[in-house]
Amino acid sequence: MGSAGYVPGIPRLGIPAQWVTDAGMGVATQRDSVDTYRERTALPAGIAVAATFNPDIARAGGAMIGSESYASGFNVLLGGGVDLLREPRNGRNFEYAGEDPLLAGTIVGASVQGIQSQGVISTVKHWALNDQETGRHIYSTDMDDAAAHMSDFLAFELAIEKGKPGSVMCSYNRVRSLYACESDYLLNKVLKGQFKYPGYVMSDWGAVYSTERAALAGLDQQSAGVFDDQPWFGKPLKLAIQNHKVPQSRLDDMARRILRSIFAVGLYDRPITDAKIDFDASKKVAQAAAEESIVLLKNKNNVLPIARTAKRILIVGGHADRGVISGGGSSTVFPVGGIAVPGLDVKGWYGPIVYLPSSPMAALMGRLPQTPFKYLDGNDAAAAAKEAAKADVVLVFATQWSTEDADHTMNLDGNQDELIRTVAAANPNTVVVVESGNPIFMPWADQVAGIVEAWFPGSGGGDAIARVLLGEVDASGRLPATFPASLDQFPQQQLPGSGLKDGTPFVINYPEGAAVGYKWFDKKNLKPLFPFGYGLSYTQFAYSDLGAAMNDGKLTVHFTVKNVGNRDGKDAPQIYVSPKNGSWEAPKRLAGWSKVSLASGASTTVTLIVDPRLLSVHDGSQWKLSNGPFVVSLGASSADIKQNVEVSGTLSR
Ligand code: BGC
Questions:
Q1: Which of 538, 51, 44, 596 lies closest to 293 in space, CA to CA?
Q2: What is the structure's pLDDT at 650?
């Protein structure tokens, strides 16, 4: 059944074929077989998994989708999306892991570990600087070496170190006018040279434009040649080697790298198979991830958790009576149980719009059997307001589909902003549950009592949302990306390439350089709608006893976190670092965090060792340790620092 690719094996040598499937949320099916799709379990979106701030959750999720891949007859999974969220309008932000290189690299590295623990090769993708979809086949990203290394490249470097992916996928875009899959700089120099990456580079589908240039630049495998203008490897490569345009040693290196990963990840020892999948067990993994990913952004007068005594609950919009939305494009997982809202628009590529059959309303009703619920689709705002006036609590579900191959605007689609305002005016206990794959604007934020960011929450999303809304679990997600307040806060107010005729090449000079996300907001002193790292709990935490020391050339930080509220809960206290004198790309960098689970009244001491790269500046060819003293800060978000200490001493790598 359709998926992403196939590379025949060599039975004579026992080399297995590579059966390749998308992608990071689970086993996908390609669209041409939409009537006969394969039903599989979907994890929450990559950005949601990052919002857990919990690498264990990412690893467990990776293992789940790795095992479903293997059981579906696939031994290569095109997961590991780690392009940084530097452009909030990027349609693929949902596949990635947010704006910070340490967070993204750590979460994606853990997810890759999980996938590969099942004997399935994972990619890390899309290398590199592939940070928007508009013009994705033609734009060129021109960023200086140092800035790239301290932002996007660092996310890849960390994900590769931690996850040891069998393959890295090079991207569609150009970098300094050369296609990424033909860039000696990206493939040979940075990836294989500076990062010492031992695995193989595969091209994205339709990202190759030549034989010689690509082979010499370091491309090891041309993926799905049907997407390219012609098969550039295979016969043309053989000819290029015979004509001494490409040395035989390059071909040997390609084969060695592919075989190395086949052996390292265990494909050689595990022939592929079709096995039975325990979908209930998979769904539990997806639901656990969703539960930790949901971010409580506003909770005026403790409108949440919903009081079990609430008499009438009105639910409006977002097809919450049927399911939860997911992202579009090659990563689309067709859900077990079928598409919950069939027939929605976007019939061809990159659709369909898939709602997973996990209804938040059904999950709430199952838990509050005595409470009368009512659902309205929200198309008529006035009618919704009329009903809202009669309810104790109103939950408005706002959905914002996003997809590969298209970027989007920051405002909610259709009449949703207006709907929220109208309903909120009729009922002060209005809570908005957003399902989106990226930050959005919330022009109604001051008018509603509660806001919950539930992302694309995956196959267990309905139950996860219900459990958080009812307080069965704490709200413990934290934002892996800044939510800007307005377009004028963006480094580029106009999306690069927008308005250009299709096919017109253009250059993106990201003015923020390495100061991505909160770093830009700090540097420019901008107040976002919600900052990076932010999220409320149903309980309160107090931080104390921050200390930092240089031990054996490493910066070691410790602090105490105490649950001072009257409920059990989870928190993700964060450590940021800055140079006391001088400056980096931005005032501070995330240098560590810990996801802690604490009973009411309990406390714990956290100790973290800071990666020396976060105390260094890259000069384009290597990291150079900065001289101290450093300021170490402990905070509940990038904009809520509770304590600072200074530390000096000698660092070593
Ligand atoms: C996407 C990749 C994906 C590949 C195979 C491309 O369009 O950019 O992320 O893995 O297709 O489906």
A1: 51
A2: 80
